[in-house]
Amino acid sequence: MNSALLMENLRSIPDFPIKGILFWDVTTLFKHPDCLREIVDSLYEEYKDAGITKVVGVEARGYVIGAALAMRLGAGFVMARKPGKLPAETWSESYTKEYGEDRLEIHCDAISSEDVVLIHDDLLATGGTVAAVSRLVGRFNPQKQYMGFIISLKDVPRVEAFPEDVETFSLLNL
Questions:
Q1: Mapping DSSP to helix (H, G, I), strand (E, B) and coil, where does residue 163 land?
Q2: Out of 98, 158, 160, 167, which one is annotated catalytic?
Q3: What is the 3 state secondary structure string of 106-148?
Q4: Is the dihedral of CA 123, 153, 118, 4 positive or negative?
Q5: Would you call 105 a catalytic residue per the annotation?
């Protein structure tokens, strides 16, 4: 897609959070109402006929669009959070990202086998984060999983392959 409006309002920050990383800052898109509307509208158009019943937002930037998209799709919203942030029983999964290791958790009762799940995050780089979330979601044996992003970095090698039946979509391919 690579919308001119989104590209004009997207900020990049070299050497953040560590030297050698070019950080794509989607907060500049979130503060611009026309960009925010275009992101939600475009993702809605992509998924409106997919039967999505739950949107899983990945901490923290995945919450912004994930919650708005869930509301627009008439779906529930589930948070994938860092350890110790969710109050009830959780399942946890570790992952490696471009500059370290981390874990994410989801409540054990957040998704059912009847659900069709869209995992949403702001950016797909090496894929470690979203692969971990996909493994967490997979524990619930949902009917289907999708992955949606604002940005996908084309020239970054993926650390893990996603399951073949998980379709991915990105608004911006950089």
A1: coil
A2: 98
A3: EECCCCCCCCEEEEEEEEECCCHHHHHHHHHHHCCCCCEEEEE
A4: positive
A5: no
